[in-house]
Amino acid sequence: MANTATRSFLQVAATEEATTPLRVVQIEGLVILKIIKHCKEFSPALVTGQLLGLDVGSVLEVTNCFPFPIREEDEEIEAEGANYQLEMMRCLREVNVDNNTVGWYQSTLFGSFQTVELIETFMNYQENIRRCVCIIYDPSRSNQGVLALKALKLSDSFMELYRSNNFTGEKLREKNLSWVDIFEEIPIKVSNSALVSAFMTELEADTPVTQCDYDRLQLSTSPFLERNVEFLIECMDDLSMEQQKFQFYYRNLSRQQAQQQAWLQKRRAENMARKNAGEEPLPEEDPSNPIFKPIPEPSRLDSFLITNQIANYCNQINGVAGQSFSRLYLMKALHEN
Amino acid sequence: MASIGPTVLQLIPSATRVSARVHPLVIFNVCDCYVRRPDHAERVIGTLLGSILPDGTVDIRNCYAVPHNESLDQVALDIDYHHNMLSSHQKVNPKEAIVGWFSTGFEVTGSSALIHEFYSREASNPVHLTVDTEFKNGETTIKAFVAINLSLGDQHLAAQFQEVPLDLRMVEAEKVGFDVLKPTNVDKLPNDIEGMEALMGRLLALIDDVYKYVDDVVEDRVARDSKIGRFISDTIASLPKLSPHAFNKLVNDSLQFLNLQDQLLLLYLSSITSTQLSVAEKLNTAAQIL
């Protein structure tokens, strides 16, 4: 223990390199409220914002955040957006807020967030900060009394693969990566300062029933389920398109192989004839021949993402249906009494 | 106060009787700013954003701290900072305008008048919110004030701070659940089924309470209160009276909005889809014919 005090800064920096994996995301209640406010005010438009905080060992503390204005395609406005971000960071630093980017948050509709854009944004962030996290909030689910917050990050092995942009079946098998392993969900912890906690305790004496409970008892879930199933069907269509792409690829591949075999047999027979005639045999490979050109394998990224999405919808349907069963039985029991 | 001649001492009241409504985010933010205040500062002040509702209520939805310096008789507010922050906030939400300012501390102090004057130029009839972060009298004191000008003829004499009713809107916080926002440390967010479970527990406890109360009243242990009795009977009456047959129809018939069978079907469908997915994944990784 004694020599820890004498460690130089450099040494500390060096040991930091061996990072402990990110285990928990600790969010302040303030941040939750801010995210909810921003996402809800603009729902159903999707919004994003930046998370600020500290990276402490295996815990990522999110202590503040600020919203981004709704993004527009115009280049000029994009530059303005970057300015806005810098300006906001500078201002927040002046009032002693941690101005260390730790990730971003975004709203989503019915959990449809697993897109290529998300991955791209994540890679962008990851380039600048070693550890970052994406917090997803779903305003549509929150109407049912669920705090639909999720903290996600991309798994390391997936990022490696994404950097090399190599999503062929072979590579995926090598890494043993399946669609489940793209995103890692990190458990969320909530912390509040003692001051806030005191205020809340004082302001809101223990009420037996809250708005949250009323929302949970809402009997009608049909619109939510309907939308979910709609999205599910869309995803299924997309997935079957992807599958067709693969089938096409495999069909092409086997046809090419058959052609190659045929060509090889022909060449062998020819060589045999030449040998008998005492001539030099021709080479058994001919790179100039078009049938030897490898057919590019389509990327599996899309189908992986779609699969993820489908799994997500299934989970949601399961959860909601489960909940509404208990509600229905509750109603039944009430009625029988 | 009534006088003869041209000079009249006037208390110019605000146009309408204002009341203010504060969203929990503002309280959270003020607390956070106070915790992060600079070493030498005794209090933090900042701008309140929001809008004025049609009925004259000031709806305070957002806020940000503004650095300031206070000495005995003067206050220096970082006006540049204030304007920068304002324009940044309005980029995100153009609907939020300045509605007033906040300060931590128990009461309105002398320098508050100066700051209030500044905000009067930024917004008409600003609201001054004080949040007592030191718990001076042992409880939370959050108050809102508006200034009333006291003038003699054309001459501006003083401003009087008058307290206005304050509505602490906790609906948003309720939606999140106090279980998450109250304690200093929560290890895990409740998921939907757990939330449901807790809810059932609470509901059961409530029903038990009602039972107990009714029993107590019947057996003359508790003084009867017709108000509570009426509430209970109203609650019971709000349950629609249906014959068992109609009720069954309601639950099981897929044409109704509560459709047990549809939901079972969906459940089945989603399970079969996820099974399909895992089977497909196994096949994809195991049996590639290359």
Automatic annotation (TrEMBL), chain A:
InterPro entries: eIF3h (IPR027524), eIF3h_C (IPR045810), JAMM/MPN+_dom (IPR000555), JAMM_MPN+_peptidase_M67A (IPR050242), MPN (IPR037518). Residues 267-291 are annotated as: Disordered. It is found in: Cytoplasm. GO terms for biological process: formation of cytoplasmic translation initiation complex. GO terms for cellular component: eukaryotic 43S preinitiation complex; eukaryotic 48S preinitiation complex; eukaryotic translation initiation factor 3 complex. It comes from the Eukaryota. Residues 267-278 have a biased composition (Basic and acidic residues). Keywords: Cytoplasm, Initiation factor, Protein biosynthesis. Residues 25-158 form the MPN domain. Component of the eukaryotic translation initiation factor 3 (eIF-3) complex, which is involved in protein synthesis of a specialized repertoire of mRNAs and, together with other initiation factors, stimulates binding of mRNA and methionyl-tRNAi to the 40S ribosome. The eIF-3 complex specifically targets and initiates translation of a subset of mRNAs involved in cell proliferation. Component of the eukaryotic translation initiation factor 3 (eIF-3) complex. Belongs to the eIF-3 subunit H family. This is Eukaryotic translation initiation factor 3 subunit H. It comes from Sesamum calycinum. The lineage of its organism: Eukaryota, Viridiplantae, Streptophyta, Embryophyta, Tracheophyta.
Automatic annotation (TrEMBL), chain B:
It is found in: Cytoplasm. Its main location: cytoplasm. InterPro entries: eIF3f, EIF3F/CSN6-like_C, JAMM/MPN+_dom, MPN. Residues 20-151 form the MPN domain. Component of the eukaryotic translation initiation factor 3 (eIF-3) complex, which is involved in protein synthesis of a specialized repertoire of mRNAs and, together with other initiation factors, stimulates binding of mRNA and methionyl-tRNAi to the 40S ribosome. The eIF-3 complex specifically targets and initiates translation of a subset of mRNAs involved in cell proliferation. One of its GO terms (biological process) is formation of cytoplasmic translation initiation complex. It comes from the Eukaryota. Coiled coil: none annotated. The keyword Metal-binding does not apply. Component of the eukaryotic translation initiation factor 3 (eIF-3) complex. Signal peptide: none annotated. Pfam families: JAB, MitMem_reg. PROSITE patterns: MPN. GO terms for cellular component: eukaryotic 43S preinitiation complex; eukaryotic 48S preinitiation complex; eukaryotic translation initiation factor 3 complex, eIF3m. Belongs to the eIF-3 subunit F family. It comes from Sesamum indicum (Oriental sesame). This is Eukaryotic translation initiation factor 3 subunit F. One of its GO terms (molecular function) is translation initiation factor binding. Keywords: Cytoplasm, Initiation factor, Protein biosynthesis.
